[in-house]
Amino acid sequence: MDFEFSEEHKMLREAIRNFAEKEVAPLVEEAEEKEQFPVELFPRMGELGYLCLSYPAEYGAAGMGLIGACIAVEELAKVCAGITGGIMVQSGLATESILAHGTEEQKQKYLVPAIKGQKIAIFGLTEPNAGSDAAAIQTTAVKKNDKYVINGNKIFMTNGSIGDFVVTAAYTDKSLGASKGVSLLIVEKDTPGFTRSKLDKFCARSADTGELFFEDCVVPAENLVGEEGEGFHYLMEALDAGRITHSARSVGLAQAAYEAALDYAKQRVQFGQPIYKFQANSFKLARMAMDIEAARWLMYRAAWLFDQGARRLNEAAMTKLFASEMSVRVTTEALQIGGGYALMSDSPLQRYFRDARLSTITEGTNEIQQIVIS
Ligand SMILES: Cc1cc2nc3c(=O)[nH]c(=O)nc-3n(C[C@H](O)[C@H](O)[C@H](O)COP(=O)(O)OP(=O)(O)OC[C@H]3O[C@@H](n4cnc5c(N)ncnc54)[C@H](O)[C@@H]3O)c2cc1C
Q: Is residue 121 left, alpha or beta, with left meaning phi > 0 and alpha meaning psi from -120 to 50?
């Protein structure tokens, strides 16, 4: 057993930490307030090689494995979980199926620009009537000669209003059911019949979230990703890795909340002493530190297993379930330690608390994770 990160991974952590503190942190306040993802981060991160970190070098990515991707997400999430969400979707869910199953032409046209941060990607699964029950999607793609005609509606799309293309799930043959009837298609933002709107939310405000509409939206048949009818399997594969990086976000977010609460507890004096000296608070902090550490190693072990090449459904679901609940526990305690000041809009503690609530719902709700595990 080896619990050490490789030298490359240690250097990556250091580099991303510096980048997050110097180049991401100054953008957070405005992005959160205006609810606008700072899009300039995509080309900048692409230039530095920080997008799609787990992808292979042959497409211009850093080839750092899922462990590398988790290190990056953990460090970015310490600074801002919302912004991290947009980067995560670009670096995983929205592009992974193209990497794994796309044609060489699709890789050059969509994947390489996504890795460079020149194109922003959207992952299009959820619909107004199909959340946890992904098989209930109603979007259809009907093949006519060498084209597909897409009709339907997607909701809660990360990068939805800023994305350049969406990898969308649609039924190509409803009669075959989800496991043989769903396909993935790439739709570019300027395709006639494709429109979208932006959604407003109380958490992860700096992540862009949108709704997409396809109305007789025609795309060439070459925009089909992989085999027709295999889309559902591709989506599930992408979600496995996604749940692990999602856990890294929970760990980074919780770590930030813990550190902010500890700092505050050292500075805040009541009854003549810093409040961390009250056992009620120091025990809270001890348990928070333990909780984060447990989630961190569950997450890195799942990432390590993934990098060994096998599909790890259970470990991905377990780490997602544990890490997201952990982030809710830790950010709730951090808020409590922060007292009234933590509830003020300018306190990072209230942002951590709001952002953690998202994590038990996205990437498959925690109830769904329990179904997967059981
Ligand atoms: C900010 C944000 C960003 C998102 N980004 C994306 C994205 O980029 N791409 C994308 O495709 N989707 C995205 N999603 C969608 C997200 O994955 C879904 O919200 C999630 O899967 C849950 O679906 P739902 O919201 O429709 O809830 P529902 O499925 O309606 O669930 C409501 C409640 O019922 C519970 N429930 C449902 N079925 C069962 C069951 N069988 N047993 C027990 N309990 C059950 C759920 O756990 C939940 O508590 C995003 C969502 C949000 C909020």
A: beta
Distance 19 CA to ligand 1 centre (A): 32
Q: Which residues are catalytic?
A: 363
Q: State the distance from the centre of ligand 1 to the C-alpha of 37, rounded, in angstroms.
A: 22
The count of other CB atoms within 10 Å of the CB of residue 374 is 6
CA of 254 from ligand 1 middle (Å) equals: 22
Rounded average pLDDT over 209-228: 98
pLDDT at 1: 81
79/28 Cα distance (integer angstroms): 8
Residues with CB under 6 A from ligand 1: 89, 123-126, 131-132, 156-158, 201, 204, 209, 358, 361-362, 364-365, 367-368
Residue closest by Cα to atom 26 of ligand 1: 131
Could you tell me which residues come within 8 angstroms of residue 350 by beta carbon, excluding any fewer than 6 positions away? 335, 342, 343, 344
pLDDT in tens, 6-39: 999 999 999 999 999 999 999 999 999 999 999 9
Task: Report CA dihedral (84, 213, 97, 91) to the nearest 10 degrees.
Answer: -10
Show the tokens assigned to 80.
Answer: 């801002």
Going by alpha carbons, the residue nearest to atom 7 of ligand 1 is 157
Length of the chain: 374
Its sign, for the CA torsion 296, 298, 301, 306, is: negative
Has residue 2 got a pLDDT over 90? no
What pTM value is reported for the model?
0.97
Q: What is the CA radius of gyration of the chain?
A: 21
Mean pLDDT across 308-331: 94
CB 137 within 8 A of CB 171: yes
Mean pLDDT of 166-185: 97
Which of 311, 298, 290 has the alpha carbon at shortest distance from 239?
Answer: 311
Q: Would you say residue 311 has pLDDT above 80?
A: no
Distance from C-alpha of 76 to C-alpha of 21, rounded to nearest angstrom? 9
Distance 235 CA to ligand 1 centre (A): 15
Residue with the smallest CA separation from ligand 1 atom 43 is 367
